[in-house]
Amino acid sequence: MKTKELLIKEVENSPDFILQEVWDFLQFLKAKYQQEQLEVRLLSQSSLKKDWLQPQEDKAWQNL
Q1: pLDDT for 6 beyond 90
Q2: Which of 2, 13, 30, 40 falls 20 to 30 Å from 54 in CA-CA distance?
Q3: Reported pTM
Q4: Measured between alpha carbons, how far is 52 from 58 in angstroms, rounded to an integer?
Q5: How far apart are the first and last CA of the chain?
Q6: Which residues contact 22 (CB under 8 A, 6 or more apart)?
């Protein structure tokens, strides 16, 4: 059985007070993942900026 199917089976057999905690935790994990992705993109951009802002780069891309 796949993870999603196992989760659905457990959800169907769980009391509401546990489901509320599971819901809260799932929302927390999704927000955390989105934040981590944003941080990686920002760090990558800042790291690559020094290469992008070179006169050689401007020259290489001017004909495109």
Answers
A1: yes
A2: 40
A3: 0.55
A4: 8
A5: 50
A6: 11, 14
